Amino acid sequence: MNISKRQKGDLNAIITIEVKPEDYQPRVDQTINNYRKNANIPGFRPGHVPAGIIKKKYGKDVLVEELNKLLGEELVNYLRDNNIDVLGTPLPINSNEQLTFEDGKDYSFDYEIGIAPAVTVTMPADKISFFLVQVDDKMVENDVDDMRRKYGKFSNPETAEETSVLYGDFSELDENGEVKADGNKTTTTLSIEMIRNDEERKKFIGAKKEDAVRFNPIAALKNETEVSAMLKLEKNSASMNSDYEYKIKTVNKIEKAELNQEFFDKIFGEGIVNSEEEFRSKIREGIASYFENESDKKLQKDLRNVFLESNNLPLPDDFLKRILKSKQENPVDEHKFEHEYFHVAEDLKWNLIQNKIAADQKLTVTKDEIFDTARVMITQQFAQYGMPAPENDKLNEMVLNYLQKDDSMERIERSMLGHKVFDYLKKNLTLNRVELPYEEFIKKLNEKTAHEIEHHH
Hints:
The chain is of the alpha+beta class. It has 3 domains: 2-115, Alpha-Beta Plaits (2-Layer Sandwich); 153-255, Transcription elongation factor, GreA/GreB, C-terminal domain (Chitinase A, domain 3, Roll); 266-455, Trigger factor, domain 2 (Orthogonal Bundle). The protein has helices at residues 21-38, 51-81, 137-150, 198-202, 217-221, 224-231, 261-268, 276-310, 317-326, 334-360, 367-384, 392-403, 408-428, 438-446, 450-455, and strands at residues 2-7, 12-19, 86-92, 107-115, 128-133, 153-155, 165-172, 185-191, 212-215, 244-255, 431-436. Strands 6, 7, 8, 9 and 10 form a 5-stranded antiparallel beta sheet that branches. A hairpin with a 4-residue loop joins β1 and β2 (12-19). α3 crosses α8, α10 (334-360) crosses α13 and α11 (367-384) packs across α12. The protein is elongated.
């Protein structure tokens, strides 16, 4: 067998594999012999079917199958032994349909490959902004109030007060103020404190069980997200702006839990917090920690864009496009395809950059780390359905089965390596820490960069 490489441009090459009968014939004969042992053909005892009959019946299929296996193994070994880092999968140039398969023939197969570019990572020269939220007293107070309600005492008074939480039926009204037969209907809670419009709030104070109050939720609450969740509607639904009748089923009152040691122990564990000042400080830390996770997501996105712009890696674009098109069953719109390819190419470049940083800094992911991560994932899946995870041995068996499916192990490894690269960059790059009030912080999280505006449409 002879394998050679012919360069075709900087990032493309043709691999030629020349195969002689002595390379494939032993494999073919062995497979024919295995077929012979198990074949069930009328007129012959099992295991005694002549090899010639088996060869006549299955010979060509076996030859093609064994050649394909041999070529796949040799191609992988050649690329590995010669340290050729490829992108995508090798494309056969001469298909099986173009060849005549017969025992005893010499064969030559050509494969086109796309080669990964050499990567030298340029670190950003300028400081990168790391946006953080300013945790103000109002945010702390809101969280404290939520916890006091959660652990408070419930009662069902006759009439509603400003702090009451109602439970009832929403029914959409038509332009004449009548209940629409096919209108939106839902049963849910309504906190009177959430009603920001003073006139609308007054309609509910003093209301009793079985009373029906007519109002416009979006005008009353002045918050699309809250109304969308309450009415179980998409934000762009026409029913979001309708008037509704709310028929009260129950009036609920929550007596907030006292800020005492018993309450502190319920929230944080016995003896962890011993005063109201310590309690509020812990709450402030928790809010900051939650929003730092959001800050990290924003920083990850910004780092990706900065590195892609400062490290413009070439790719074998024509080759990669042909691979993508070969996997599409139906003809694709060229404009849509080019847009999709742009994102595929960006992902490839970012993976190359991350892998280079990981290699330079000797960042690796061990099999034990992959196993432990998969174990946590499966345990969390059971928890989502309110079920306990299986016993240790059974859980470990499930993890091993999961990691053997498709590219599960590689996918987890990529994700974990990406996190390690991000942690390294966050620690070693010079970041400009910018604290913003909550509203400005949220706007900054949702803000699109110039790169995204140009390409993400």
